[in-house]
Write a structure and sequence with these properties.
Elements lengths: L1 H27 E8 L5 E7 L7 E3 L2 E3 L2 E4 L2 E3 L14 E3 L2 E6 L7 E3 L2 E3 L8 E5 L6 E2 L4 E2 L10 H9 L5 E4 L26 H9 L3 H6 L2 E3 L11 H7 L17 H4 L5 E4 L4 E5 L17 H17 L4 E5 L7 E5 L6 E5 L2 H8 L10 E6 L5 E5 L6 E5 L29 E5 L4 E9 L2 E8 L4 E8 L2 E4 L3 E2 L2
Parallel strand pairs: 11-14, 14-15, 17-18, 18-21, 21-23, 24-29
Antiparallel strand pairs: 1-2, 2-8, 3-4, 3-9, 5-8, 6-7, 9-10, 11-25, 12-13, 16-17, 19-20, 22-23, 22-24, 25-26, 26-27, 27-28
Helix pairs in contact: 7-8
């Protein structure tokens, strides 16, 4: 009898402790989201204050999560800012992850349902360049505390109401690099640097409704290189395994940590997104020498894109830096607006492999980096390009022209046939499938009001309005 009671008590205590641990983990799970990775693998990821990973329930069955990274504060490393304006990156949380089974229908974390992408993606939300800019070198202090001047939270909420199947963020998540000066009320009290608190303020907190609405394809931007927010990127949003030396912790390993393999995320049987990490691309104005380490890495990526484009009839190429779009600057001598085309460094690498830059089957380029909404069509000779770097970060000061001069070309032989932009408004875009190889593109403001509509058939795109102004 004593043995029986002892066994019952042990079973009860074990169950109670397991329940308490699960409840504690569920309570502490601050952020849960799903990333779409290589071959369309859906990765459930959780950032938690708990000491153990919570248990997922997938289709009614438990699924154990594995530790991706443990709480740690990394020693201060060289960054893009001066040492006086840098600090160690603190990540006091546990990051856990689990691959969802390919045909999973439901995934539950406690009482919370995680989003799962359908087998056929019909509606995609596009955003980019979402962080609040705090950068001493540019004397740029965006009013992060003012929803009108930093509207990413509004954009995420409005985009979530569209019930997308997938979200694509084209890069640049964390802009709060340096402390807000004491006399800048608009950003007073903001976290800064590259640790978890800055990631939460700049991305995870405002993005919460959109993270809950759909799985994400996360594209790496130049703000996520190793000298900036690379440590957080590789712990939190990168879909590849977190590996020693590819973690941005040691500057000596940056030539490993700054690059990734191109991967494909299928949208259906005929269409896919190829995700390319162009984060460490050079400034736009100069070609890269063939022996430049960046050229070597991106030449390998170019061959990977070429191989992926052969897998399906239609490919969207998602990376941060536009190769065929325009940015506007002002000539310091004359004061006239000057258009800066594409990225000559990346173009120089791709042109060595293909005089048309991109292989056949690449229909659409999805980019950010330029803080505007911009669409370009080249009549099918080149992919159309859609820049969506207008989702929260301080917008570009110099506006794009309403119409491009006929002599302007972003690359050799690339003749612009249709051009559209929105240069003075924050917002997001949506791709909606309307037929085989055919999509409707809609442009929305921060509240979800449509401001423009475009069509994409194969490589050819056209917008209803050439330039939107508020």
């Amino acid at each position: 009898m004593k043995v029986r009671w002892r066994a019952l008590i042990q079973t009860f205590v074990a169950g109670l402790l397991a329940g308490l641990a699960a409840a504690s983990a569920a309570r502490a799970a601050e952020t849960a989201y799903v990333l779409v990775g290589p071959q369309g693998r859906q990765i459930a990821r959780v950032i938690t204050d708990a000491a153990i990973c919570p248990a997922l329930e997938v289709d009614g069955q438990p699924l154990a999560m594995q530790v991706r990274s443990r709480p740690q504060t990394f020693p201060q490393r060289p960054t893009a800012s001066s040492p006086a304006l840098s600090k160690p990156s603190a990540f006091p949380t546990l990051v856990c992850e689990a691959d969802l089974p390919p045909r999973a229908r439901t995934a539950r974390l406690g009482e919370r349902l995680l989003p799962i992408a359908p087998r056929v993606i019909r509606r995609i939300v596009l955003i980019g360049d979402t962080g609040c800019r705090l950068k001493q070198a540019d004397k740029a202090y965006q009013a992060c505390n003012d929803p009108a001047k930093y509207p990413f939270a509004q954009i995420a909420a409005a985009a979530a109401k569209l019930h997308p199947d997938l979200v694509v963020h084209v890069g640049d998540y964390l802009y709060r690099e340096n402390p807000c000066p004491a006399d800048e009320v608009g950003c007073a009290g903001s976290p800064w640097g590259y640790g978890q608190d800055a990631w939460d303020a700049d991305f995870f907190t405002p993005a919460a409704p959109l993270l809950a609405a759909a799985p994400w394809v996360a594209v790496r931007g130049n703000h996520e290189t190793c000298v900036r927010a690379g440590q957080g990127w590789l712990r939190l949003l990168d879909p590849w395994p977190l590996a020693p030396h590819r973690d941005c912790n040691d500057a000596a390993d940056d030539d490993i940590g700054n690059y990734s393999q191109v991967y494909a995320a299928p949208l259906d049987a005929d269409t896919q997104i190829a995700v390319w990490d162009s984060a460490n691309a050079p400034p736009p104005g100069k070609p890269l020498a063939p022996d430049d380490p960046r050229a070597i890495h991106y030449a390998l990526n170019d061959r990977e894109i070429e191989a992926i484009a052969k897998l399906k009839p239609h490919t969207f190429l998602a990376n941060h830096h536009p190769l065929l779009a325009f940015a506007a600057t002002t000539d310091k001598t004359t004061g006239q607006i000057v258009l800066r085309p594409g990225n000559l460094g990346l173009q120089s690498v791709f042109l060595r492999n293909d005089p048309n830059l991109f292989p056949k089957g690449v229909d659409l380029l999805l980019n950010g980096h330029i803080h505007v909404l911009e669409q370009l069509n080249f009549g099918g000779d080149y992919p159309s390009e859609l820049v969506t770097g207008f989702s929260g970060t301080q917008e570009d000061i110099v506006p794009l022209p309403a119409h491009l001069p006929p002599t302007e070309t972003p690359a050799p032989g690339a003749v612009v046939q249709n051009f559209s932009s929105w240069v003075d408004g924050f917002g997001f875009a949506e791709l909606e499938r309307v037929g085989p190889g055919a999509w409707r593109i809609r442009i929305f403001d921060v509240k979800g009001n449509q401001v423009n509509a475009c069509s994409l058939v194969g490589r050819v795109s056209k917008c209803e309005v050439d330039q939107v102004r508020r």
